[in-house]
Amino acid sequence: MRVIGEISQKMDALGLVPLRVPGLFYRSHAWTGADLAGVSALLQREVPLVETGEVDTVERSAACVRRAVEEATRAGGRVVLFSASKGGADVEAAFAGDPALASRVAAWIDLVGLLEGTPLTEPGVAEAERRTLGLPEATAQSISRGALFPQRASLPPEVIAVHVAGFPTVATVSQAARPGFERLRAFGPNDGFLLLDGFLRAPGRVLVLPAADHYLRTPELGPTMVALLSIVLDEIAGNSGRGATRP
Q: What is the DSSP-derived secondary structure letter of residue 198?
């Protein structure tokens, strides 16, 4: 608890504003953790949620992210973005659509981000299988690998990006992630929703949580996030001390 308090205080001292960029169904299926409510608990404060629309397309959600970042930094300072699942695709699309946005972002902490899309919504997938996801057709297409794979953001070095990836085995994948995991096994290692090889090309660094799947239901997540945030904030402070350019 002492460390958590110090993290929140350091964030204020550095002029950083945290924002949550949620995943799919973040209100109707909050049990998935898609609303990132755990971030508010971690920082012991209410962290603003970017209302990206529960099932909006990546393009529309990215516009919401851009507006939220611009509004949060209007009086100065920079943001720390927390994203989950599709929220990772929304953030990356926001950067790709407006490269200048990165000057307003100090760090991006992404949990199981859908950076390169998912084969579960590819056009060649049977319509009945795609319908089980409960997504509008336009949204399903927007998170396909064909739509997202070519759209990669190039982040400047001053933006610290860390992607937390789950790496389950057949024995550890949860019941909720099992259907997707089984459907994707033919494509390679996956977390039940996305292919893990995408993290090899992710901008920034990757932190792997062994035995966890796309829902990150592991007791290691909390302590890992505390340690990760502490390190990231120290790095931001160090960069500021070296006179890095700021907006």
A: G
Would you say 77 and 103 are in contact if contact means Cβ atoms under 8 Å apart?
A: no
Domains and CATH numbers, the chain: 2-241 (3.40.50.1820)
* Distances 79 to 109, 176, 216 between C-alpha atoms, Å: 11, 32, 24
Residue 162: is its pLDDT beyond 70?
A: yes
Q: Where are the alpha helices (DSSP H) in 50-133?
A: 58-72, 86-97, 127-131
Beta bridge partners, 119, equal: none
For CA atoms 217, 218, 220, 223, the dihedral sign is: positive
The structure tokens listed for 188 are 């390679």
pLDDT band at 243 (very low <50, low <70, confident <90, very high): low
| Number of residues written out for the chain | 247
C-alpha pair distances (Å), 22 with each of 45, 47, 186: 17, 12, 28
The whole-number average pLDDT for the span 85-111 is 96
Determine the number of helices (DSSP H) and then strands (DSSP E) in the chain. 9, 5
What is the 8-class DSSP label of residue 18?
A: E
The type of residue at 138 is: A
